[in-house]
């Protein structure tokens, strides 16, 4: 197989932009020349990598798999050249994608705790919904993903290709604004209808709540008055006294402690959640490999937030 490094770099650029014209500008070549180089790569590999029938263009299933290899080869080559030229990459930042609620409330104390065991750990964090995060991880466009574990396997992540560490056991709690006596303004025990602040249909946390309510008469009493994909958005509405919502406990610890929020139901209505840190085993970035080895040496309870 006769491959040129520039073809791999072209392919990575195309996967990022999903546009031949934009990629050609980025790679400082004409669009016809860029297209010929992508064709040459496909001929060398022996499969079609790019789905040209869609707008923006997409990758075939073979292309998605090859993208991880291409990124891996380009990164390893660049890192090797950096070493040869005497450039240190010891402090290279790790790119992490995380669910919004985890990025805002869980990540800061967890990474601070981890650094006490491992030392300084430069990172770049981007918050996005779980579906987007999985896509970014699968295409090798991030180093690590922080997400809720999916016991129903709807995320479809092969444990061999995408190994993970369990780093947190948390719960979603039903909460409400308190009334003047400190009791919940809205309670699950009420016989009347209850204003309900819900997660949007595609939100991961919303599926967990729907599973809890699926076969319970309570769902018939809940009157949806607001929807959003983000736990912090629901928290803000609960604090305004609009209704009840299920929110991860790490997002509302301070509010529960000070009495700004109270439980709207007992512990039978809590939803257990597990948080995991994922990586792609096909990507061999030195910083990720080093972190993974170090984490494996730490006591299990040290990894838990």
UniProtKB/TrEMBL annotation:
Q: One of this protein's Pfam families, by short name?
A: HTH_1
The alphabetized UniProt keywords are: DNA-binding, Transcription, Transcription regulation
Query: Which intervals hold domain HTH lysR-type?
Result: 1-60
One GO MF term: DNA-binding transcription factor activity
Q: Does the keyword Coiled coil apply?
A: no
| Family matches, as InterPro entries | LysR_HTH_N (IPR000847), LysR_subst-bd (IPR005119), WH-like_DNA-bd_sf (IPR036388), WH_DNA-bd_sf (IPR036390)
Which family is annotated? Belongs to the LysR transcriptional regulatory family.
PANTHER family recorded for this chain? HTH-TYPE TRANSCRIPTIONAL REGULATOR, HTH-TYPE TRANSCRIPTIONAL REGULATOR YJIE
| Protein name as annotated | LysR substrate-binding domain-containing protein
Q: Which organism does this sequence originate in?
A: Halomonas qinghailakensis
- What are the top taxonomic ranks of the organism? Bacteria, Pseudomonadati, Pseudomonadota, Gammaproteobacteria, Oceanospirillales
